[in-house]
Specification:
With about 240 residues, the chain is α/β, with parallel strands linked by helices. The chain has 9 helices and 9 strands. The radius of gyration is 18 Å and the shape is globular.
């Protein structure tokens, strides 16, 4: 069975992605900071879908350990999906640099570090697929998502560059932009239902996108056009808006 590595496997989106791939008979490698929290999910995947599941310790911000983490995987995955992320309210980040730094480090530096390690292996083999969960928040700098959005903008640019590099060596790289998603991270936010995806919708979009070797996937199609409009608002007008 092909193997899928899920980085940041404790999030709601990651659980849905793991269940989707397991239902399609992929073996699953779950990676997160607290692997003991992944044991119930590991057991559930094995019992429900009859596949092999494993749990590993992984810290997105431990950059120096990323190569060793990947080297120690008993089976190298054919597909790697980067799901982890970190977000707090911008007001808190504005006042507390450690929170701002954590958003930048987790959403950009950590993701770029581990995916570069994986991409190097895939490029040497001439095969492999990578998916990164980025965000529509990265499509234009906005005051309401200053640090989170800029980190995701960097991640989106990294994925695009990695796609350009990997395409010449048989490696597929896909960017995923879910828009709003109902998760524990957004539980206290009032989200517009038509623009908000369930984790299962994200999982279906990731699975289908990888199967079809898509470059970029918007889980809710409306977001592509919403962000196109926002990106084209002239700067003199944009500065007067409270987005």
């Amino acid at each position: 069975m092909p193997t899928v590595l899920i980085l940041g496997a404790t999030s709601d989106m990651a659980v849905a992605i793991a269940r989707k791939f397991a239902s399609e008979k992929y073996d699953i490698q779950l990676a997160g900071r607290n692997p003991e929290k992944l044991i119930p999910l590991k057991g559930d995947l094995e019992a429900r879908f009859g596949i092999k599941a494993e749990a590993f310790a992984f810290d997105a911000c431990d950059y120096t350990g990323h190569q060793a983490f990947y080297d120690k995987l008993p089976t190298k995955p054919e597909i790697s999906i980067c799901v982890f992320g970190y977000m707090v309210e911008e007001e808190l980040a504005n006042e507390n640099w450690l929170e701002a730094e954590k958003m930048i480090a987790t959403n950009y530096t950590g993701a770029a570090s581990i995916l570069n390690v994986i991409a190097n292996d895939y490029e040497n083999k001439g095969t492999g697929s990578i998916a990164g969960i980025s965000s529509v928040a990265g499509e234009r700098g906005r005051q309401s998502k200053l640090f989170y959005g800029s980190a995701k903008a960097g991640f989106s640019a990294f994925l695009a560059g990695l796609r350009n590099r990997g395409a010449k060596k048989g490696v597929h790289v896909m960017s995923v932009k879910p828009g709003f998603v109902y998760t524990k991270m957004t539980a206290e936010l009032e989200l517009p239902a038509p623009l908000t995806a369930q984790p299962k919708e994200v999982a279906e979009a990731v699975f289908k996108g990888l199967k079809k070797k898509k470059n970029t996937v918007y889980v809710k199609w409306m977001w592509r056009w919403i962000m196109l409009i926002i990106k084209n608002i002239p700067e003199p007008i944009f500065k007067k808006m409270n987005l």
